[in-house]
Amino acid sequence: MSSPSSPEPTPTSDPALYPSRPATAADLAQIEALHDAVFGPGALTRTAYRVREGQPRLTPQCRVLFRDGALVAAIRFTAIRIGGIGGALMLGPLGVAGAHANQGHGRRLIAEGLAAATEAGVAAVLLVGDPAYYARFGFRPVPPGRIEMPGPVDPRRLLLAELVAGAGAGLSGRVSGGA
Questions:
Q1: How many C-beta atoms lie closer than 10 Å to residue 40's C-beta?
Q2: Rg of the chain in Å (alpha carbons)
């Protein structure tokens, strides 16, 4: 038992028990069912979904994680353009089944997806999310007014990770789907 002053250990997703791999078209129905269960029907009205409309549902960076053949977690990345410039991705949604939440599965999929993006030469990754959670992966708030989403978002939650040093400095303008 830990003392009140010592932090609790961070749970880690065990790859032996929870294998992960790139998502495939065969996974899409399960991924969408998981996202529906985690986020509910209102999720499709969010601004981030506007960016994803009409875009391929999978990129090579999308990942899935299973336990005993059942989908436990999934992360999606979408190719985007910022101010007409390609070479970036939007992270999300990231969904973890309720019974498996807070066990490190989401963190693992984010790390794996960002590693795949880096390997593919992606310059930057954008998301709308919790700054405190995503800071550990190198995401930082976008300076107000620099990057514009196609609908309302809380500007404090618009975050960018540079996978190539300095990539964010040249990015400004409206976000749209596409490579």
A1: 9
A2: 16
- Give SS3 for 60: coil
Which candidate, 145, 151, 147, places its Cα nearest to that of 167? Answer: 147
Residues 6+ apart with CB under 8 A from 53: 177
Q: Is 98 helix (H, G, I), strand (E, B) or coil?
A: helix
Distance from C-alpha of 36 to C-alpha of 63, rounded to nearest angstrom? 17
Task: Please list, residue by residue across 160-173, b when 16 or more beta carbons sit within 10 angstroms of its beta carbon and e when fewer do.
Answer: bbbbeeebbeebee
Q: By three-state DSSP, how is residue 168 classified?
A: helix
140-155 pLDDT per residue, tens: 999 999 999 999 999 9
* DSSP strand pairing (140-141 vs 158-162): antiparallel
List the CATH code of the domain at 20-177. Answer: 3.40.630.30
Map out the domains of the chain as residue ranges.
20-177
How far apart, in Å, do the first and last CA atoms of the chain sit? Answer: 50
| Contact call for residues 158 and 146 (beta carbons, < 8 A) | no
pLDDT tens string 21-45? 999 999 999 999 998 899 887 665 6
Q: Which residues, in sequence order, are CB contacts of 135 under 8 Å at separation 6+?
A: none
